[in-house]
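Tip: read the tokens left to right.
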């Protein structure tokens, strides 16, 4: 009975087939490339703009009037990127929005970050 009820934790590398493992590694390789390129919010936004242009998005500042099917983007203070695809029904029927944040992991040091305690050097971060 214990064998049937006990939760057996297994690593995905033991469970996944080779095709699934390859898909995971391909995704992680692309994500590592993105993290390399976008070390800060500004670098990530610049890279996002390059990808947007590659996939047919235009700066909203270049567009005189929007029509169904248009793909536009705007950049706010070089730290955030807004992408939109204009739908057929206008805003009278509402709209769908997907939001995310920029992944740019980094150490953010305080003004005087270095201190010593118990003969060990520490760094204060935000």
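Filled-in amino acids:
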């Amino acid at each position: 009975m214990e064998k049937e009820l006990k939760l057996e934790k297994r690593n995905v590398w033991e469970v996944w087939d080779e095709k699934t493992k390859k898909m995971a590694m391909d995704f992680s390789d692309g994500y590592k490339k993105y993290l390399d390129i976008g070390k800060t919010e500004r670098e990530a936004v610049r890279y996002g703009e390059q990808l947007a242009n590659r996939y047919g998005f235009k700066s909203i500042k270049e567009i005189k009037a929007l029509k169904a099917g248009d793909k536009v983007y705007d950049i706010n203070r070089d730290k955030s990127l807004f992408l939109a695809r204009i739908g057929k029904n206008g805003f009278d029927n509402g709209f769908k929005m997907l939001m995310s944040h920029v992944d740019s992991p980094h150490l953010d040091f305080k003004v005087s970050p270095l201190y010593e305690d118990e003969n060990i050097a520490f760094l204060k971060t935000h």
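The chain has four helices and five strands. Strands lie at 58-59, 71-76, 80-85, 109-117, 120-125.
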